[in-house]
Please model this.
Amino acid sequence: MGGAFVTVGLVGCVCLGAGGCSGGPRAAADDAPKGDAVEVLHRAADRLAEAGSSQARTSMEMATGGTRVTIRGEGVYDYRRQLGRLRVLLPQDPAGPRRPITELLAPGALFMKNRGAGVPADKWVRVDTATLSDGNLVTGGATDPFVAAEVLRGTRRATYVGPTEVAGAQVRHYRGTADLAVAARRATTANRQALAAAAEGFATTDVPFDAYLDDEGRIRKVRHRFSFVNGRQKGPVAVASTTLLFDFGTPVRVRLPEDEDIYAGRIAEE
Model:
């Protein structure tokens, strides 16, 4: 899949367009934020679980080889079961069109189909997210929407920027910094190990972010800026991951692959 990959997965090869955010004269239902900014952000993942599910769009942007690469994805996510499905689009390849990669997100695991790298087209690749140095925050080219929300559990500092609009929804804009190590300790059991791995593997545990929450405290958009250590680069790689959430309550059906459908052979190095 080319130089856009930064790890065993698709880091730098999957980015999801997160939709625009534009300010407007209309504020959210109440211009003043409800509660302390840090505490509001700590509860954002719980508000998603209460919502049940949504559609999602993601984007991941990084600079590689002097070129800015964007990977885009879209799909659905069930926050209560922590299961999701994304269709991830890689950047255009001069050699020809690339097939979209199907990703299934599950507690502790990432499944990819049309992975390439010598994997048969009808087989899935399974990755244990706790074994990844980034906890799958960037490896798959899209950050798991619920993991993105759980990063905010580690918010140390945050300020309320003001009311604005995201994809037609009135929201409150917060800006702050989260600590991955703190997020790992406060995360749900399913994501604790993955976030702990990221805290160890990233260049810094500090994650600057911009989060946009609606009147119910649900994330409508969140943008994280990760500093990722890649063995192929001399210094850390800056990765911006954006997640846009909408259509809450949408039906989500995710069927995980059977054992016989998972590829057990060697994956070619990219």
Summary: Residues 1-9, 11-29 have pLDDT under 50 and may be disordered. Residues 58 and 156 are 25 Å apart (CA to CA). The radius of gyration is 18 Å.
